[in-house]
Amino acid sequence: MHNSHAKAFAPSQDRKDGKINLIGLSRDEIGNLFAERGLQAFRVKQVWQWIYGRGATDFDAMTNLAKAVRAQLADEFVIERPRVKQAQNSVDGTAKWLLQFDDDQEVETVHIPEADRGTLCVSSQVGCTLTCKFCMTGTQKLVRNLSAGEVVGQIMLARDAFGEWPTPTDGSRQLTNIVLMGMGEPLYNYENVAKAMRIVMDPDGLAFSKRRITLSTSGVVPELRRCGTELNVNLAISLHAVNDEIRSEIMPINKKYPLKELLGACRDYPGVSNARRITFEYVMLKGVNDSLADARELVRILRGIPAKINLIPFNPWPNSPYECSAPMTITKFQDVLARAGLSAPVRTTRGEDISAACGQLKSESVRQRKPRPHDHLRAQVAAVG
Ligand code: SF4
Question: Catalytic site residue 108?
């Protein structure tokens, strides 16, 4: 398994104009920057509450700070979210944003409204370290990790879009849950993702409960253990197969962290209980992992782990090598799990009309840039004139 992820550093916070974006910096980092500029320590909490509690985007709005302090802050710092290059809304209410960063790299973020919640699907890498065969993002080579600011920025701009500053308390919230299930493997960008989640969970700002945050991983076992002890957010596992032979075929990471090791780490995940189960995602691939024998084996390998299973009808994408299992096959598969007492809802495909469904995320510009057959020939002809 190649280890390119270690070198895909996120960009520095510094900008062309030399100002520093405060979004994504920890309280301590802001405290050090302020101290270097002769600003008192209590300013950190004031500014933090304006940024993450009230959604302030400029210092002038921070009326409980003296004018001179606001001016000094504005000289040296900014409060910036990623740029929205494209916003799309699905007929089913799902929204997708194509975001662009200072270095013109792009990711997608998706909001999925439901009756009792509104979930934001957040990306953690441009492209992905991994190459799961059923996932479109997996066809996009890893370009780089997102910085903590670029992860937090996705949540900030969604709050802006819903006008949820400060956090509504009348039950009208549209952004209630965060899932790290967008582009990229979050545990191959652990430091930045962990920093971002600490900012998001800080009670003086966005104040998301760890029970409303779910990190989904393809199974990076060492970081999974760290995530459990340090962040203890909800866990989702991209499982998708019940034996190493199939799983290594569709998810090469299984060669590095096989099922036995992965499920062992799940058994040890802190705080797991029937009230807080691990979600196992299982994409239904026709003739690959959808037999009744697979279903029975799934029951066997998950025995003893407080688990719920998300059965995901495969969402085809251009040139994808698989087909979705037939509805009756999925129902029979689900019945085997239900008879064993396992909750296994079939995930409703959302946002398909805007390519926002699971496994369909890919930077639009890459999609557009994707060379069509004979493109290089056209280029040569063009060159020759
Ligand atoms: S499923 Fe997740 S880990 Fe696998 S290629 Fe897609 S984004 Fe990457």
Answer: yes
Q: What is the second-level CATH architecture of the domain 83-384?
A: Alpha-Beta Barrel (3.20)
Angstrom distance (rounded) from CA 40 to CA 128: 41
Q: Can you give the residue ranges of every domain in the chain?
A: 24-78, 83-384
The whole-number pLDDT of residue 176 equals 96
Exactly one of 76, 80, 108, 132 is catalytic; which is it? 108
CA of 146 relative to ligand 1 center, distance in Å:
15
Report CA(139)–ligand 1 centroid distance (Å). 9
Helices (H), the chain: 27-36, 42-48, 67-76, 148-162, 190-201, 221-230, 244-250, 259-267, 292-301, 327-339, 364-369, 375-384
Active-site residue flag, 281? no
**Distance of CA 282 from the midpoint of ligand 1 (Å):** 13
CA-nearest residue for atom 4, ligand 1, is 132
Buried b or exposed e, range 160-189, using 16+ CB within 10 angstroms: eebebeebeeeeeebbbbbbbbbbbbbbbb
What integer pLDDT is reported at residue 234 of this predicted model? 97
Q: Please write the tens of the pLDDT for every residue from 303-338.
A: 999 999 999 999 888 888 999 999 999 999 999 999
Please give the Cα distance from 59 to 137 (Å, whole number): 37
Nearest CA to ligand 1 atom 5: 138
Nearest CA to ligand 1 atom 7: 184
Q: Which of 6-15, 35-44, 271-280, 372-381 has the lowest mean pLDDT?
A: 372-381
Q: Which of 185, 250, 362, 363 has most ligand 1 atoms within 8 Å of CB, for mutation?
A: 185
| pTM of this structure | 0.89
Report the mean per-residue pLDDT for the chain. Answer: 89
For 24-78, CATH number out of 1.10.150.530, 1.10.150.20, 2.60.40.10, 2.40.50.100 equals: 1.10.150.530
| Mean pLDDT (whole number) for 234-260 | 97
Percent of the chain with pLDDT over 70: 89
